[in-house]
Design a protein that fits this description.
The complex is a heterodimer of chains A (about 325) and B (about 220). Chain A has about 325 residues and is α+β, with helices and mostly antiparallel strands. Chain A is built from twelve helices and four strands; from the N terminus they run ααααβαβααβαβαααα. The relative contact order of chain A is 0.14. By secondary structure, chain B is an alpha/beta fold. Classes of the chains: A alpha+beta (about 325), B alpha/beta (about 220). At the A-B interface, helix 3 and helix 10 of A face helix 2 and helix 3 of B.
Chain lengths: ~325, ~220
């Protein structure tokens, strides 16, 4: 897919050169010269961008914004994953005991369950305590007073051992616990974590769709910029073709320009995302503090940044490749 | 060096620019191509540089068959030619030096050698002091000399020029012709299209005459 054709083999056996004097007169660049030429074009195409600061900056800014959006959303998702990651381990099973089970029996059951290998810990919440907590938190104190009796059962909160925390294993455990004598109902408190994950998966898909659309936008922006560039340099291209420039030679600076646009756009996107993170970091930390959570926003990691820059450069290269392929051939000296 | 064999060129739209043209230019020759404007001089030169392709017939340049040449090979043919145009075809956003260096850059000549050879070429056309200037600041004759320097800097085997003196006064025109004679003396084959008949006669070289696309050699003069 790379357009740079190797020029021609550098070595040529003397007998052939003698039989074909015409071909022998060609100047044949070796690999070193070839690399040097690329390096020159790499620098000179950046210089060309530099000499047109306003136009270049606008193109770079457009690419930057287009790339910043999916990158920012990716970071939001990443942070959400980190935040919810802390909750994954907190899968727990609540065993609601029959109300007629006496407190001593509840304690015995809790201790017995704790001894089982598939269970890490159990906590008994006696009905009286549960009532007090409910009274304090729910605001239904008055209504509770109207009842003769405590309507709440004893509850044993079971935390499965890590080896049994996988969804399938936990569900087996729940089924087992549900038929323990004295247990009225066993409930797995994992549903909402699953739902959150499902929700995040939908958002992730959405981000991917947006990223694909914006990548297409970057392609078109770079393609259009390069197309204009080609038109502006039409004369130069004609003259170069007249004095023996190959298509590859003429194509090269445009391709490098495109790659530069993409790379600089990626940098701009990184800058924008970092700015956004910095702006939201304070409020997020404040919110976390209110929840007594040590959570802090994480910035883009090296992998993400490198992907962003490489992706930008690649999109730029591809965009200019499309434009160059379409428009360069049409320019011929006359 | 150049051999045309029954070459026809018909442009889209039906205009027949060249009809049944056959001639030969041997290596080291200096030949003029004359004729009224529209006689097909430019077309003939364009066929040599493969800017246009012949409709019929065979054309050979420097041992290569132009009729069968693939598109990708054309640049390598043009690198062996030096082409000079009436309107110079210079790049006005680059200095004289950069304009002349262009063929060398395209062929991948190393930097230090580019400097040396560009200065040598500019020296030949007597423009050594103006290498840092932009072409727009030069006179017409000087611009034409920049074009000539660019056409010879890569040591072409064949120099073709389309009305190189078209816009110049007689003195300047003579000067330019002297330059071509100089290049011819060091072994470069030269083909010049010109309608400055007096000038051409004065030089006493072989003349090919085009009339409405047909070729004749009025006075097959001294070689």
């Amino acid at each position: 897919m790379m357009p740079f054709r190797r020029q021609r083999p550098a070595r040529r056996s003397p007998p052939r050169a003698a039989t074909r004097p015409a071909a022998g007169r060609l100047r044949l660049p070796g690999p070193k010269v070839y690399l040097l030429r690329h390096a020159e074009v790499l620098v000179s195409s950046l210089g060309r961008l530099w000499r047109n600061p306003v136009a270049s900056l606008m193109t770079v800014a457009v690419i930057g914004i287009a790339l910043a959006l999916p990158t920012g959303l990716h970071l939001v998702l990443e942070n959400a994953r980190l935040l919810s990651g802390g909750w994954d381990g907190s899968t727990q099973v609540s065993l609601f005991l029959r109300r007629e089970v006496p407190a001593a029996e509840s304690q015995r059951l809790a201790a017995a369950l704790q001894a089982r290998p598939e269970i890490a810990a159990t906590t008994l919440i006696p009905r009286a305590e549960a009532l007090a907590e409910f009274r304090a938190l729910s605001g239904f104190g008055g209504a509770l007073d109207a009842l003769d009796d405590n309507p709440l059962p004893d509850v044993i909160v079971v935390r499965p051992a890590p080896s049994h925390a996988a969804p399938g294993a936990v569900e087996g455990l729940v089924a087992e616990l549900a038929v323990e004598p004295g247990v009225e109902h066993a409930r797995l408190d994992m549903q909402w974590v699953k739902r959150l994950h499902a929700l995040m998966e939908i958002v992730r898909r959405g981000v991917e769709v947006i990223a694909a659309l914006l990548a297409l936008a970057v392609l078109l922006v770079v393609g259009n910029t390069i197309r204009l560039d080609i038109q502006n340099r039409r004369r130069e291209i004609e003259v170069a073709k007249l004095i023996g420039a190959t298509d590859a030679f003429i194509r090269r600076p445009f391709l490098y320009s495109g790659a530069w646009y993409g790379l600089l756009g990626g940098l701009a996107a990184w800058l924008l995302v970092s700015l956004a993170l910095w702006a939201t970091g304070g409020p997020v930390q404040q919110l976390a503090l209110l929840y007594q959570s040590p959570f802090r926003l994480v910035a883009a990691d090296t992998g993400t940044v490198l992907t962003l820059l490489a992706g930008g450069a690649l999109l730029g290269l591809l965009g200019s490749w499309l434009a160059v392929g379409r428009h360069l051939r049409a320019i011929e000296p006359s | 060096m150049i051999r045309f064999d029954r070459v026809h060129k018909r442009y889209p739209g039906g205009h027949e620019a060249l009809k049944d043209v056959s001639f030969q230019v041997t290596a080291g020759e200096m030949v003029f191509l004359t004729g009224h404007s529209g006689a097909g001089k430019s077309t003939l030169l364009k066929l040599i540089a493969l800017i246009e392709r012949a409709s019929h017939g065979q054309a050979l340049v420097d041992g290569e068959n132009l009729t069968q040449m693939r598109r990708g090979r054309i640049p390598y043919l043009r690198r062996r030619l030096g082409i000079i145009f009436q309107d110079h075809h210079l790049l006005y956003d680059r200095t004289v030096f950069d304009n002349v260096a262009l063929p060398l850059v395209i062929s991948g000549v190393p930097h230090h050698e580019i400097t040396r050879r560009v200065r040598a070429a500019l020296d030949k056309v007597d423009l050594l002091g103006k290498e840092r200037l932009y072409p727009i600041t030069l006179s017409g004759g000087e611009q034409q000399r920049v074009g000539i320097a660019r056409a010879v800097v890569h040591k072409p085997v064949l120099l073709i020029a389309d009305e190189p003196t078209g816009n110049l006064d007689p003195d300047l025109a003579r000067e330019i012709m002297q330059l071509f004679l100089l290049f011819n003396q060091v072994g470069v084959t030269v083909l010049i299209a010109s309608h400055a008949l007096d000038l051409v006669r004065a030089l006493g070289r072989r003349v090919l005459h085009l009339d409405h696309g047909r070729l004749s050699e009025p006075d097959a003069g001294a070689p």
